[in-house]
Protein: UDP-glucose 4-epimerase
Amino acid sequence: MTVLVLGGAGYIGSHAVDRLIEKGYDVAVVDNLITGHRAAVNPKARFYQGDVRDQDFLNNVFDQEDIEGVMHFAAFSIVPESMEKPLKYFDNNTAGMVSLLEVMNKHHVKRIVFSSTAATYGEPKQIPIKETDPQIPTNPYGESKLMMEKIMRWSDKAYGIKFVALRYFNVAGAKPDGSIGEDHHPETHLVPIILQVAAGERKELSIFGDDYPTKDGTNVRDYVQVVDLADAHILALEYLKAGHDSDAFNLGSSTGFSNKEMLEAARKVTGKEIPAKMAPRRAGDPSTLIAASDKARKVLNWQPQYDNVEDIIRTAWNWKQSHPEGYADRGANA
Ligand code: UFG
Structure:
């Protein structure tokens, strides 16, 4: 039996594929390579290039593979871009989910582990955020993912397709050996941008807003290491295979770091000065996002290995130093 990983050439998907293979699973990958990198996919996985919205293509993959479960990472995920291009997000992310579930149903594949996000909660009413808290997104990216969660809920009722929605907080880092990592074009995420400055590729970091109601005025986020995150997907798949019901889990460290603290941590790890300036707030940013992640620890038995941001940043720095240009195929897909 095979695990099908959609979006397996992306940042998080490629780490999940790698961990699945390390743990002895048979893996097939689907990716349209719009933001993913062929070189990020572990060579032991079978690779199909195509789009989840293309049902002929997807039916063909499901015909060829004997699929025990699906991990779905294929989505656009840039919050500021979603504010400017909401329909791009509803089309690719939300409509992509409808297409996938139709094909899964047709082929009697009844398990899906899904990349959801803290962005489904919007501006939280309380910190830490619990899975049962209201989900009121403040940007189209979060809305597109919330809709995907709801679509899965109704598809469970109607077709018995069981799901685990994993609501990630801020993912960072890379495989510790530096062989795979984060490579977005353009890069918008805090940690890789800080490291681009450290590497001399950018002049300075712009910190978006220092007038938030937080400890130092800058946004507070909860960072989780990408390999720990990948492992949670495997636990979620096994949870569904054991016959448990559909559910949602937060994945975070339960500790918040401000943007200024992240900058300080990166200065320590890299030994570089990393110039920074204050800049206006970025549209759609909630002030503080910290997960209550005890449910995943208790129910899925998730035991993240990384519990401090310096170690997480160190893995990202290792990738950055060994791959200053990212993946070699950047030109083809940028
Ligand atoms: N930031 C800066 N300067 C930059 C880039 C980012 O100050 O150049 C700040 C942002 O304003 C924010 C923080 O760094 O306060 C983190 O920003 P990221 O873009 O790295 O991450 P987000 O918190 O916006 O979003 C990430 C994922 C989403 C997910 C969300 C959930 O990209 O998919 O975490 O917390 F929904």
